[in-house]
Amino acid sequence: MRLPDLDLRLLHAFLVLYEQKNLRKASEELGISQAAMSRGLAKLRLAFDDPLFIPTARGVEPTPRAHDCVAPVTEIVELAAERLLPTVPFDPETSDRQFSIAASDVGELVLIPELMRTCTAWPGLRFNAQRLSIKSLPEELKSGAVDVAVGAFPALENAIRCRRLYTEQYVCLVRSGNPILSSPLTQARFLEASHIVVSAGVLGHIHGRAEQALLGMLPASAVKLTSPSFLLSAMIASETDCVLVAPSALARFVKGRCGLEVLPCPLGIDPFDVVMYWHERVHHDPANRWLRTLIAESFASDRAA
């Protein structure tokens, strides 16, 4: 196999020029002269046997061959930087990093306060909470817009790095004065009650299975409200005589806060695994590894409590 006469600096220059679409701007970003940038482009054109970038009035325009090469060249450069360059350990005491975490409203309630409490010793660290959506999440993880996601998205587990955190169960939430508390909650009484059903909508979350099971078993007239938010649904359940089927993590958070009682769910709704997701690109990144360890430890301590 004959390899092209290319080094990592040339490949990096290719990516910068692809992004800037202007020789002067690309050379300034790389800290080299425009003449050196032009010589590098000549070498790239020879190696790829393609013009790669066509001059225009405003700069240059990538050719179809250049578009095709961006993904593999990016992968090569990132892999080399990740595996070959010296790794700087992550130090939370000196870092001012803002970590972006995508989670459902339940995940935000359970995870974010715990992380903020844990990180009070490191005042420079900050967090950005983002809502989950399976449609945008893979790209957000790939681009770095999201550092880590927490949820239950089985469709993602073959394409994204993941780690199981714990197994979640469903329970029922009702207000403390709800008449349904007058006797044990049997399946028959459950089916006769009024309900709030949380909709997974376009999120692609595994809760969609529970949603479909509930809508398939309950009379249409019994479903008084559907909502995309577990937290909003819990607040409404605390003000009405409706039953809300929700993950036990939400029950632990709202119990004692909102006048809600927790009951076992009389239906055979399957439990599900709550999983942490991240992209292969940051698998060895010290800051991301530190965050993942912190999240795993936070859930482990919460389960043990």
TrEMBL record:
The keyword Ion transport belongs to this UniProt entry's keyword annotation: no
Xref: InterPro entries: LysR-type_TF, LysR_HTH_N, LysR_subst-bd, WH-like_DNA-bd_sf, WH_DNA-bd_sf
Pfam families for the chain: HTH_1, LysR_substrate
Domain HTH lysR-type: 6-63
Gene3D superfamilies xref list: Periplasmic binding protein-like II, Winged helix-like DNA-binding domain superfamily/Winged helix DNA-binding domain
Superkingdom in the source lineage: Bacteria
MF terms (GO), sorted A to Z: DNA binding; DNA-binding transcription factor activity
Family affiliation: Belongs to the LysR transcriptional regulatory family.
Name of protein: LysR family transcriptional regulator
Organism: Achromobacter pestifer
